[in-house]
Amino acid sequence: MPIVVHLDLMLARRKMRSRDLAAAVGISEVNISLLKSGKVKGVRFDTLERICEVLQCQPGDLLVHEPEAPVKSSTP
């Protein structure tokens, strides 16, 4: 997936545990874990806003677009 979540890096920079972030944001630890692993299809803006408020960061600090390399055809 071309959108990469850097929540784990931001947590490390802030010296915060996932459990503490989950409690401060008001979502489950499981959902924080899913966000960290990138196994979610989307995130609500209000949840993203609360995460950014708690971590004192911008959405761009957490979400990065990394395009996939184009698949090369073996046919000339």
From TrEMBL:
Listed GO MF terms: DNA binding
User: Which PROSITE patterns has this protein been placed in?
Assistant: HTH_CROC1
Q: Which CDD domains does this chain map to?
A: HTH_XRE
* SMART domains to which the protein is assigned, alphabetical: HTH_XRE
The domain of life for this entry's organism is Bacteria
Q: Which residues form the HTH cro/C1-type domain?
A: 13-62
Q: Please give the name of this protein.
A: Transcriptional regulator
